[in-house]
Specification:
With 320 residues, the protein is α/β, with parallel strands linked by helices. 36% of the residues lie in helices and 23% in strands. The strands form three sheets. It has an eight-stranded mixed β-sheet with strand order 7-8-9-6-10-11-12-13, covered by helices on one side. A three-stranded parallel β-sheet has the order 3-4-5, sandwiched between helices. Strands 1-2 form a two-stranded parallel sheet. Helix 5 (95-108) links the parallel strand 4 (84-88) and strand 5 (112-115). Helix 5 (95-108) packs antiparallel against helix 9 (296-313) and helix 7 packs across helix 9 (296-313). The protein is globular, with a radius of gyration of 19 Å. The protein starts with 5 loop residues before the first helix and ends in a 7-residue tail after the last helix.
Length: 320
């Protein structure tokens, strides 16, 4: 575990509760912080740095949970050390960094995957099965939003340009990734937005199209709590995904006249991060270097979409 923050804690809790995997080492620039995290979760080793963690022979795979601005450096260090890597979403700050990580992992022969947990959840598997079955007819419209009210605070990671803050990489990546899964590659991207007081993207509304002419209507914001729902509408029926659409939730299949045709209700709503960990473990055990559920080329394509959106919004991170 690199960088023992909030997402690292949620991931470790899900891992230890719902899988047989165990975190065996945690590294932080602050040795005391690493030790406290290790004590909290019963982790054997803690390190005040990352080189020592990567030298620990007990480590099979590294989970990079640092801010977006640090993903590239931390993941590259792990790849060069010959460790498999799971990188928290958004994968990197930009597509250039993503491309370099992917090339390095393929060259080194290690597993690499973006930890976009939504892609691995059971209700999203239901969405994939419905799409493959043709029940919806021809998909015409995808709608998804992810907005959270984040108190304006210049010291917050989400408002810090130097940490690649903003709504898009933290929240907007969910609707963008969902639309990419449903629609495939985008042929057009149009975005409008409002910057926060620190210059990061505070809100963005995005319309995308695919080769067939279907639309994706997406929104993300730091300024308000939105419904965080999603829908996929076709010529025959539609799927309605309750909020929070990116977490374990209910999916309904609704006919053209509004009649309920079927519904999926998850068995559990807690610990959803365990599914991405299970997928990574299955891939590593099988000797595979990437996941079919979220291939590296798909992650790279999504990062290029995020770059284009930021370009249209006029948001540039320090050091880019």
């Amino acid at each position: 575990m690199i960088a023992p923050g909030g997402i690292a804690a949620a991931f470790t809790r899900a891992l230890h509760t719902y899988t047989e995997q165990r975190v065996v080492a945690v590294g932080s620039r602050d040795a005391g912080r690493a030790r406290a995290f290790a004590d909290r979760f019963g982790i054997a080793a803690s390190y005040g740095g990352y080189a020592e963690l990567l030298d620990d022979d007990r480590v099979d795979i590294v989970y990079v949970a640092s801010p977006h601005s640090e993903h590239f450096a931390h993941a590259m260090q792990a790849i060069q050390a010959g460790r498999h890597v799971l990188v928290e979403k958004a994968f990197t700050r930009n597509a250039r960094e993503a491309e370099q990580l992917i090339e390095a992992a393929r060259r080194r022969g290690v597993f690499l995957m973006e930890a976009m947990w939504t892609r691995f959840l059971p209700h999203i598997d239901v969405v994939r099965q419905v799409l493959a079955s043709g029940m919806l007819g021809e998909v015409q419209t995808v709608v998804a939003d992810h907005g959270q009210f984040m108190v304006p605070d210049a010291t917050s990671r989400l408002y810090a340009p130097e940490l690649a803050g903003g709504a898009l990489l933290d929240l907007g990546v969910y609707p963008v990734s969902f639309a990419s899964m449903v629609l495939g590659p985008f042929t057009s991207i149009t975005a409008v937005g409002t910057k926060a007081f620190t210059g990061v993207d505070g809100q963005a509304s995005i319309v995308v199209t695919n080769e067939a002419g279907a639309h994706g209507v997406l929104n993300t914001t730091l300024f308000t709590r939105t419904p965080t729902t999603a829908s996929v509408s076709g010529t025959l029926a539609r799927l309605e995904i309750e909020g929070e659409f990116y977490a374990p939730t209910t999916v309904r299949l609704v006919g053209r006249e509004g009649e309920l045709l079927d519904a999926y209700v998850p068995d559990q709503r807690d610990g959803g991060l365990c599914y991405e960990a299970a997928e990574a473990a299955r891939c590593v055990a099988a000797g595979r270097l990437e996941s079919d559920l979220l291939p590296l080329d798909e992650t790279l394509r999504i990062m290029r979409v995020l770059d284009e959106i930021r370009s249209q919004l006029g948001v540039v991170y320090p050091g880019e």
